[in-house]
Amino acid sequence: MDRRKLNTTNHKRMYAILLQAAAGSNTSMIYNVLLWIGIIGIFYFFMIRPQQKKQKDQKSFVDNLKKGDNVVTIGGLHGKIVSVDATTVTLEVDRGVKMTFEKTSISREASVTPATDEKK
C-alpha cells in the first residue's frame, strides 16, 4: 500500500473512533471529570497536605533549637545542644565530646525520660 493511503486510512479510523466516543452521552464525560477531580482531591488531602504540614513543623522545630535541648540527629545520634549558630548546631554527645552538625540534620527532640516497663 502507498504510505499516503495508509496514513489517510489510519486517520479515518481514528476519526471514526472519536466520533463514536463523542456520540456517547455527555453525562459519562462529566462523571469521568468528577471522578478525576475526586481522586486528585483525595490525593491532595491524604498525601500532599500532611507532608507540607510535617515539613512546616520540622522547619519550625529546627528554627527554635536552643542551648540545652536534648535532640536526636537523622543518623540516630543523641546529644545535648551546646551552641547554636546560623546553620550549624554543636552537640555534646559525651563528656568532653562535641560534634558539629547542620541544623537540618536534627531530626527530633529526645525524650527526657525513657519509657519504663510496668512491673506486674
Structure, described:
The chain has helices at 3-23, 26-63; strands at residues 70-73, 78-84, 88-94, 97-102, 106-109. By secondary structure, it is α+β, with helices and mostly antiparallel strands. It has two domains: 3-60; 65-109, Roll (SH3 type barrels), CATH 2.30.30. Strands 4-3-2-1-5 form a five-stranded antiparallel β-sheet, with helices on one face. The longest helix is centred in the middle third of the chain and has 38 residues, at 26-63. It starts with a helix and ends in an 11-residue tail after the last strand. The mean pLDDT is 81.
Brief sketch in words of this structure:
The chain is 49% helix and 23% strand. The protein is of the alpha+beta class.
| Coarse structural class | alpha+beta
Write down how many β-strands occur, each being a DSSP E stretch of 2 or more residues.
5
How far is the first residue's CA from the last residue's CA?
88 Å
How many distinct helices?
A: 2
Largest sheet: number of strands, sense, barrel closure: 5 strands, antiparallel
Radius of gyration: 30 Å
Uncertain ranges: none
Mean pLDDT: 81
Shape by Cα distribution:
rod-shaped
How much helix, percentage-wise, in residues? 40-55%
Percentage of β-strand residues: 15-25%
Strand order of the largest sheet: 4-3-2-1-5
Total of domains: 2
What is the element string, with H for helices and E for strands? HHEEEEE
